[in-house]
Design goal:
By secondary structure, the protein is mostly helical. The chain has helices at residues 15-34, 40-53, 62-72, 75-98, 105-128, 136-149, 151-170, 179-215.
């Protein structure tokens, strides 16, 4: 983010603090948009898109957030919201059954927690994928691959979600600000994964060249 490196003459607050304030305003707009519940995936996806644009020096404001949200609302977003809501209700019902003292409740609770955590990571990473603006199926498919290829990033996503939930549990008003930092964390993990993917071809070429050099042979010429 080139625009975050310097402070303009006469500027009271630095650009990083300005981005932080913009992130909070985007988070508040996201929280308001999530109130119908079924709009949560589209709301978080739009927040990630706005914050992702900050890397290209685009404004990360609530105004741009609602502009992005208006452009992308479609039936697929409502379906994604219904699926997410149904999954959350099913997970909650499983936990209630596990706490009812049924035989095998402890192993069942562990398995349900693992499946729920994996589903949450894939869902959140899907919201951070650019494909989620137009195609949720492609976003989920790529997010599942990212979750497997980048376990460190998946752990960061899970930690960000747990932190947001903890803040909302400790102080209810923070629930309206938590989506902003959560979206920023998801966006940062997504950009980190994208940079790693771009660097892999160059790294593989360097390794092949080094191998040929050690063997005293010439690397093949690429067409």
């Amino acid at each position: 983010m080139s625009g975050l490196q310097t402070r303009e003459p006469g500027e009271v607050f630095g650009p990083r603090l300005t981005l932080f304030a913009d992130m909070l305003s985007v988070g508040l707009a996201t929280a308001l948009t999530c109130l119908p519940l079924v709009t949560a995936p589209a709301a978080l996806s739009s927040a990630c898109e706005v914050l992702r644009g900050a890397a290209d020096d685009q404004p990360a404001t609530a105004g741009r957030y609602f502009t992005v949200l208006r452009r992308r609302l479609r039936a697929g977003d409502a379906l994604a919201g219904l699926v997410a809501l149904a999954g959350a209700l099913l997970f909650g019902a499983d936990l209630v059954l596990a706490r009812a003292g049924l035989p095998g409740a402890v192993p069942f609770a562990v398995v349900a927690a693992v499946i729920g955590a994996g589903t949450l990571v894939v869902g959140l990473r899907a919201c951070a994928r650019p494909e989620s603006l137009t195609d949720w199926r492609a976003a989920v498919r790529e997010a599942a691959r990212d979750a497997v290829r980048d376990p460190g990033g998946s752990a960061l996503v899970l930690l960000a979600a747990a932190t947001a939930a903890l803040c909302a549990w400790m102080l209810v008003p923070l629930a309206f600000l938590a989506p902003g930092p959560l979206a920023l964390a998801l966006t940062a993990v997504g950009l980190r994964q994208a940079r790693r993917c771009r660097s892999w071809p160059a790294d593989s070429r360097l390794r092949r060249t080094a191998g040929h050099t050690m063997r005293g042979t010439q690397p093949p010429t690429e067409a």
